[in-house]
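Late entry, written up from scratch paper. The run itself happened at the end of the previous shift, but nothing got recorded in the book at the time, so transcribing now.
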Amino acid sequence: MPQELDARGLPVKTDYPAMPVPAMYAMFSSVLGSMGVGIGFAIYKFGATSKFDGKIDALAKNDLGWVYLGLAALKQTQFLINVNLGVNRKEAKINVPDQQVYKAHGATTYVLMEQEGALGCFNRAQRALQNYLEQLPGFLAFFFSAGYVFPFPTFVMTLLFGGCRVSAAVGYTKAAKERMAGNIASSLVMETFQGLVLLAGVKALLRKERSGHRRRIRPTPVATAQYQKV
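Output as recorded:
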């Protein structure tokens, strides 16, 4: 159904619900994030735990736990930027797939994407491709970091992520709202990647700390020799 436009060619209402954008995004992020951490822990607990621990030990030995936590922290940067975008998109009442608003010099009306017919399908298909490309750098960062510790689960989740993105793209081509199921499912995969990275990073730092504590309390050779004489 075509969206209703005002005399300037702009939508008269937003697709966002009445809930404040920061609260809505935080709710979705918290739910999916909690699920991702839970799934990540289950993968560690019920998977090849001894092999995973060996890789985490290597991270601890090379003090790489901070790198893994840094990657998880960087993901929150994207979340905050998306909140900022959502707030302003809602205020402007510019709905997807539109990403910018154009106006010819001297004109009083604005130009948005064509959303009807074959041209509309093309515009949405193009936007679905851009969605994928926007997520790809972050996905690859999680792919390689999580893949080092959890190789087979990473392979499986990559297949799931790819399938979800294809589903979202096909749905988006039909209608903007049809993208949501694939988007949410792929977001859950990304949150699971983050759960694995967080788990590996935290465990690596804890093992590094315990290792350092054992070295600090280890008796010196001189003290050991004196103890043996007594």
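The chain has seven helices and no strands.
(Scratch paper discarded after transcription.)
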